[in-house]
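Appendix B. Chain record.
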Amino acid sequence: MVKFFHFCKSCVESKKFDSFLVASLLLIFAVFVAIGIHGFSIGCFDVQKSISTTIDSYYYPHILKSRQIRSDEWAVSTPQVFSQCLSKEFFPRINHNFDNGTDMFLSTPCNPVWDWTVIGQFHNWGYFIFDIKRGLAWNWWCRYLGIPLFAYFFFLWWLGKDRTLALTAALAVTLGTPTQWWDTTIPYMLLYFFASIYGIRLIYLSNGKILKESLGTLILTISFVSFLFVGYPIFELLLLPPLLILLIHAAIESKKEVKNTNSSFRCNLWIFFVFCIVLFEIGYYFTVHASALKIISASSYPGARIFQGGSLISMFQNAKFDILSLFSELPKFNLSPELQKQYVNPCGASRCRSRRHHFRSP
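Structure tokens predicted for this chain:
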């Protein structure tokens, strides 16, 4: 056992390990997307075959033991994706099969919508390119393969090129309770958080190679805009300040590592280009979704739950600083019986509505 451990450690510490890791994860991602294997709890729809007459019952392979899941995924976000994929229009922003017409981009995470925000919907690209099944696989594996990959490169830089420790930290982040529990929020944010830092480091570490600079610019643009569009402010406002600080720090430190100082000006131009794209996307977002955002901010977001409040303002007043405990343990809900009746989780209602509206025949 000891010999096996030392063998694994020697493999991880090899200089070729980074290239092997990237190639392996890309291959796994391509194979799983092609086959259509994913971890979404779509099997719940097999139990309720009467939900739809337009979709064949979809079965997925059972591996190990089924576990409890958050209703947000299978009762809210996944049915909304199905509604978008089955729409007569090509992934419309306003879906008229959902109630009397709903802005589908304003959800957590954002649903696939084909407009100028597509650059910030990397997790939805599979729906645009392939079918529903492969789109779900793309969404699932880009997170649970992307997080350990980009987190590994972040910790490799942050922990002084200790590959074993960096890999351990990356796996801990991926398999941590908040990542696994908040399936509709935290995994997306972590993916784009670490990928953005990787992108900016790739730009400045390109050493004058335009191809690497272009790739880093693409990764940084897609990741940072996608991070902003995940659509869960209470987590985004916690992660955005450290992300901006780390991006600046990564740029400064990466400049010190490169030998070719002549490429620094071009790298700065790439960053300016990214900045312009981000400003455009933010401006477009608030312009197009202005009326829907006004309604949301004046009502309840993301639901009438006492812990997160009944509005954007009371959400932060009620949460105070207890929200920080989300990254160490699950929040404790100490509600009286009266409050429990008053502040019911709205996911149950969403589940009922999905039977009527999400799968209406196109």
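Further analysis of this model is presented in Appendix C.
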